[in-house]
Amino acid sequence: MSEKISKLVNVYKKYGFMGFCKKLYAYIKANYLDKISFRVFFRRRKYQKIIRDILNLKYDRIILWRSSFGYNVPLFQRPQHIANNLSKNKCLVFYEVTTMTDKVKTIKKQQNNLYLFNFNNILLNKILLKELNKITKPKYIELYSTDWKLTVKNINDYINNGFKFIYEYIDHLSPDLAGTKSLPQNIIDKYEYAMNNKDVYVVVSADELKKDVVSKRKEVNLAFSSNGVDYDFFKKLDQNFKFEKEFLDIINNGKINICYYGALAKWFDYELIKKIAKSNKYNVILFGIKYDEAYDNYISDEKNIYFMGPRDYKILKNYANKCDILIIPFLLNDITKSTSPVKIFEYMALHKPIVTTDLQECRKYKSVLIGKNHQDFLQKLDEAYNKKNNKDYIKLLDKEAKENDWSKKALAIINLIKKDEK
Prior knowledge:
Blueprint: H1 2-31, H2 38-42, H3 44-55, E1 61-65, H4 78-87, E2 91-96, E3 107-111, E4 114-117, H5 122-132, E5 139-144, H6 152-160, E6 163-169, H7 175-178, H8 185-196, E7 201-204, H9 207-217, E8 222-224, H10 231-235, H11 245-251, E9 256-261, H12 270-278, E10 282-287, H13 294-298, E11 305-309, H14 313-321, E12 325-328, H15 334-337, H16 342-349, E13 354-357, E14 368-371, H17 374-387, H18 391-403, H19 406-418
Parallel strand pairs: 1-2, 1-5, 2-4, 5-6, 6-7, 7-8, 9-10, 9-12, 10-11, 12-13, 13-14
Antiparallel strand pairs: 3-4
Helix pairs in contact: 3-5, 4-19, 16-18
């Protein structure tokens, strides 16, 4: 209960009173009121048939994605991309929605072999599990290490019904990421379960996370799958996209345009961007959400820093493409040491010069310019600007983007579990 209260306090700080009330209503409706559906109750046979028809499709395995990240959310990230690409590789995927954002009361086809599913609907979930018990093909439950909803008992219930468990260890386990004062017990319990049971398939997204797993259970049933990019999506820019006047006024004011998009949180180096802005050479343009109170605590009315708020994933690439240099200015700590930034691969696909702080997962790529400290970061910005039209550098960006397409990341997971399938 204390975890939920601290989460609500964070929501209040982030969205204000009216935003908090809307979020609270949506949460109560999604997690309590929507559990019972008269639509499913009175049309039970209809939903049985829908699910049976789906289970009669051609596929090699079934994966239930059980983390309430949502699908149709502004932050279109790893869960959706992995699910999309698993479904393209002979996996039948039932992806858990949150009715706070997805507005899927029951089940909805997203693409071939990928279905958005409301696991919170008690009766619908029972129908699915009953039908799945008749299926002899390999079945898996897959979730994030940061999921705080499912318990170890829930996991064991699936295993007792013939499922295997895929645990995606994708971030340092921290209350700052969970949005709570202390780490939720369900997160701790599932982590310990995965580390102590070698039959659990563990997928890691960063070297630091891999070291942790190997120290506890060696390399048994372990796969490395960093974050990636939908390369084809980022190559298709909207040439007729209409930017708002505020954005156009900024990028046309004669300064070099630096852009970052993503969460603005405690791990963001605010002192660094203030130094960049003070040079008076750059516009620092920030897209995203204020994940916590850190931005407002560090940034007030600094000249040359522009917070533009969030943009939908589908159009964000158009804004980033208009800028000269794309950056990741993170502090160095336990969270960022274990982070594989999605945006770095998206930056590559946009063919834009990239400058980051000395992040462990960013050092792997030749196209990324690493600022060892603040002064070095400023020097790397100059170097990056000089590379913006360099053909060899652009070829390198393109090569590393293609090497990190999401299709390859999903394939690493499939290869991990396929070796044990009969």
